[in-house]
Amino acid sequence: MMNDTKFTQDGNTLTVERTFDADLDTVWPYWTEAELLDLWWAPKPWVSKTKEMDFREGGRRLYAMCGPEGEEHWCLATYTRIIPKLSFSGKDAFCNEEGFINEELPVSTYTNTFTDEVGKTHVTVLSVYASEEHLKQIIDMGVKEGLSMIFDTLDEILSK
Amino acid sequence: MRRDVFNAIADPTRRDILLTLTEDPHNVNALADRFDMSRQAVSQHVKYLHECGVITIKKEGRERFCMLDPQALTEVADWLEPFRKLWEQRFNQLDQLLKNKK
Lengths: 160, 102
Prior knowledge:
Largest sheet of chain A: 9 strands, antiparallel
Number of domains of chain A: 1
Oligomer: heterodimer
Order of helices and strands of chain B: HHEHHEEHH
CATH class of chain A: Alpha Beta
Shape of chain A: globular
Number of strands of chain A: 9
Structural class of chain B: alpha+beta
Radius of gyration of chain A: 17 Å
Number of helices of chain B: 6
Strand content of chain A: 35-45%
CATH superfamily of chain A: START domain
Structural class of chain A: alpha+beta
Strand content of chain B: 5-15%
Largest sheet of chain B: 3 strands, antiparallel
Order of helices and strands of chain A: EEHHEEEEEEEH
CATH topology of chain A: Alpha-D-Glucose-1,6-Bisphosphate, Chain A, domain 4
Strand order of the largest sheet of chain B: 1-3-2
Largest interface: A-B, 37 and 36 residues
Helix content of chain A: 25-40%
Distance between the termini of chain B: 61 Å
């Protein structure tokens, strides 16, 4: 049985919640160690490649989401506050290979919280967008992607 | 006849116009150039889309700018969907890793 993922959107805040069938000691490293993060962070067939990661307060993770056609989207996650086995937070942004943030694309502040639930772990990912403009941009990007997906499906149905 | 968003996306050209407008507002002439169609044909599609309530038209001098109304399109395209897809895929992959670890 797959666990449900809960999505909530309120104003400029997006919350994602999910329970994993493993204890906190097992789950935590998958979110905080580069080699383990790279195993699941990118949706297949994309691959996550971490160039550098320093999981300490003031540190950052610079990584690329690499596509099957050779696409590379560089992303940066910073670590502002870390409470071991409880939560960590920082900023999420798009950047270049050197980690210089692209200010034209949405930046969000995230907080990931972990709760031990007797052999299971509940994770909450909270993303707050920096401004209404950034949120609007994300919405537009989402609308475009959402539309494309629906149109692809529609084209498929119509071509039958 | 009342037209809605589903009428709007029933035609491939109108779908292409909508996708183009997700990038930027365009005026009718720019759309006509882009789709290699007569200005009149594009004008008809624009009129139709406007009647469906999925675009707004702003007059500036002699030009008419067409803008997407993302709100209207959420009926068919939930903008959260890409987020959902991304996170669901991530989490399913993580599930698998955690399962194999046991």
